[in-house]
């Protein structure tokens, strides 16, 4: 990775006014420069570039960052490419990262392979767009769906002709194995004359799927007339994973900022039709159920997500899967809602038939996650009977348990208890969370506790409080008076809790933000799920890095201050100094401790439920993971 010190030196040499001024018309406004924001439509300038702080900030959409972040956001460059671009402008040489030559070579080969595949897919996209322009039948279909040429161009819509080998005219060699690897051509049979090759997509409207950087990574194709399947998607490839990507996210980045929430729908045409009617913040899953990775990716852009589903049985089932995916990430500062349309409508038909205002009203009436959980739990249950209420609780319990610790989880417990006609404390005892609640209070700041204390916190039987009884005639014994020692100057001052692994890990990442990309997806997930302010700051850091790339502490400090988080971060972590010399290995060791703590908590919970069958096997696997992590030579999961 590029050393943070080099980034800081680079940012000190470039002039952000000059960098931004190449793309935005800026005018002097006092000590700053002002212009129209390039990231959202506006008529009066609210985009400020500060030469003293070397940052930009839009008071309209909230986007902010440094020169590297601007190039990434505006030009779609990756972090390394943006750094290299700026370094070239200043005559600086980007240093090599700390990985071994073999690791760098493998990474370079993988990157080149992915770049080659995205070039193939972009060429196919250009071919399909050209075919659309000269196919009246396809153009008429899009016009009947209410789409304009402008919106078709924005989403790069195209058309795959009816022929079996249409792509042969777009590529020098139809036998190129990259066409098969990219999913554009299907190959059957062994190599040789008997091998058959033909286009995957034929006679379909083509929807290019682009990643956050704007690279074409796959396609969705819809039939023009009747036919099966109605939608056909690219297969999994080295650059395309259905469980991670969202259609329309690249096109909707500006809309997410403007509207303040993400609208998740089920179909490509829903996304495009909604954008046509002003809802430019819609995204769609790619023919699969909504996954936890989808939800986590959306929360990097916004704190509010609304799922929109058809009102039929299939839509209800899809909503159930989305609920399960969203629950682990539903912290107290996030909003998740569910919108159900009439059974005869999907978002596309609804907004075309009834208009944007009617759809806006539906959004305002979306059901919050808490109520959706209650409805899913109570579905088919007769709550007037004890049996029905017991069944409702049995359904609700696994859903409720996946919620992160916090006020939302506590309030839902009370709601479920009242609905089941049980006292809150009784339900808490039944679900064995009396100790968990105490543990949450003790561990909310991520601090470690002795094993005995942790064990007692997990116990379903709360320890009785014994009041200390003082004897009337008590007198101090021994020579307890001071013997002339100097007065302790810390007496009477507020006590601060010692730093713990979560504190240290967060501090190291803020001071060395480039390390975030070196962590595994599992480590990212672990850090995102930290309770309280730790998780909130990690989520903030992830969103910042996604939009702006790694930055020195001085830049992050300014961004935290703008978002009102700086004082909370400093209270939690103490003094932060950019001259920190901690090593990446130290961060890995801290993550190992966090993994061990999480796994031990989970094994304690499972052990208390007398596990059998698969649950017992899982318990054994977790114990094995803990032993591996505690071994001297182990590395973080």
Automatic annotation (TrEMBL):
Residues 96-108, 441-455 have a biased composition (Basic and acidic residues). Residues 260-342 form the Toprim domain. Its cofactor is Zn(2+). Residues 90-113, 435-499 are annotated as: Disordered. Keywords: DNA replication, DNA-binding, DNA-directed RNA polymerase, Magnesium, Metal-binding, Nucleotidyltransferase, Primosome, Transcription, Transferase, Zinc, Zinc-finger. Its EC number is 2.7.7.101. The keyword Aminoacyl-tRNA synthetase does not apply. Contains an N-terminal zinc-binding domain, a central core domain that contains the primase activity, and a C-terminal DnaB-binding domain. RNA polymerase that catalyzes the synthesis of short RNA molecules used as primers for DNA polymerase during DNA replication. HAMAP family: DNA_primase_DnaG. Belongs to the DnaG primase family. This is DNA primase. It comes from Roseateles albus.
């Amino acid at each position: 990775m590029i050393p943070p010190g080099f980034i800081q030196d680079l940012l000190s040499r470039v002039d952000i006014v000059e960098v931004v001024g190449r793309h935005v018309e800026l005018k002097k406004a006092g000590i700053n420069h002002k212009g129209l924001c390039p990231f959202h439509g506006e008529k009066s300038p609210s985009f400020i570039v500060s030469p003293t702080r070397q940052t930009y900030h839009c008071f309209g959409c909230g986007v902010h960052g440094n020169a590297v972040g601007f190039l990434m956001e505006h030009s779609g460059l990756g972090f390394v490419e943006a750094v290299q671009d700026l370094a070239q402008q200043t005559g600086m040489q980007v240093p090599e990262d700390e990985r071994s030559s073999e690791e760098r070579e493998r990474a370079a080969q993988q990157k080149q392979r992915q770049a080659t595949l995205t070039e193939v897919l972009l060429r196919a996209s250009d071919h399909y767009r050209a075919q659309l322009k000269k196919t009246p039948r396809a153009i008429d279909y899009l016009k009947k769906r209410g789409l304009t040429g402008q919106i078709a161009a924005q989403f790069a819509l195209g058309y795959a002709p009816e022929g079996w080998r249409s792509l042969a005219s777009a590529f020098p060699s139809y036998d190129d194995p990259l066409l098969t690897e990219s999913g554009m051509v299907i190959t059957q049979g062994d190599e040789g004359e008997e091998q058959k090759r033909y286009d995957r997509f034929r006679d379909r409207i083509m929807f290019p799927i682009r990643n956050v950087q704007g690279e074409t990574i796959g396609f969705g194709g819809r039939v023009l007339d009747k036919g099966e399947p109605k939608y056909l998607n690219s297969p999994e490839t080295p650059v395309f994973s259905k469980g991670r990507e969202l259609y329309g996210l690249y096109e909707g980045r500006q809309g997410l900022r403007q509207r303040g929430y993400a609208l998740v729908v089920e179909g490509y045409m829903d996304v495009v039709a909604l954008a046509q009617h002003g809802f430019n913040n819609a995204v769609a899953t790619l023919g699969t159920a909504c996954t936890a990775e989808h939800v986590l990716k959306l929360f990097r852009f916004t704190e509010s997500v609304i799922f929109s589903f058809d009102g039929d049985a299939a839509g209800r089932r899809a909503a159930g899967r989305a609920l399960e995916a969203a629950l682990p990430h539903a912290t107290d500062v996030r909003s998740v809602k569910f919108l159900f349309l009439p059974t005869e409508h999907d978002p596309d038909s609804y907004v075309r038939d009834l208009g944007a205002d009617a759809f806006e009203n539906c959004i305002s009436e979306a059901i919050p996650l808490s109520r959706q959980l209650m409805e899913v739990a109570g579905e088919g249950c007769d709550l007037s009977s004890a049996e029905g209420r017991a069944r409702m609780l049995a359904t609700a319990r696994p859903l409720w348990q996946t919620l992160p610790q916090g006020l939302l989880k506590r309030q839902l417990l009370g709601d479920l208890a009242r609905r089941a006609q049980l006292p809150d404390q009784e339900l808490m005892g039944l679900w064995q969370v009396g100790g968990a609640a105490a543990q949450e209070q003790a561990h909310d700041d991520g601090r470690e506790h002795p094993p005995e204390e942790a064990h007692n916190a997990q116990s379903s039987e709360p320890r009785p409080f014994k009041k200390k009884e003082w004897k009337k005639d008590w007198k101090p014994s021994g020579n307890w008076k001071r013997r002339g020692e100097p007065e302790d100057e810390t007496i009477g001052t507020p006590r601060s809790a010692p730093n713990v692994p979560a504190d240290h890990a967060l501090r190291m990442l803020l001071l060395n933000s480039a390390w975030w990309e070196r962590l595994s997806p599992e480590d990212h997930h672990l850090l995102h799920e930290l309770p309280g302010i730790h998780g909130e700051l990690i989520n903030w850091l992830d969103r910042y890095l996604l939009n702006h790339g790694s930055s020195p502490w001085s830049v992050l400090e300014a961004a935290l201050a703008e978002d009102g988080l700086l004082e909370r971060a400093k209270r939690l972590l103490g003094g932060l100094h950019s001259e920190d010399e901690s090593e990446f290995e130290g961060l890995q060791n801290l993550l190992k401790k966090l993994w061990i703590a999480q796994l031990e908590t989970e094994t304690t919970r499972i052990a208390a439920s007398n596990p059998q069958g698969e649950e017992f096997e899982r318990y054994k696997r977790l114990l094995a993971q803990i032993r591996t992590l505690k071994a001297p030579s182990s590395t973080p999961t």
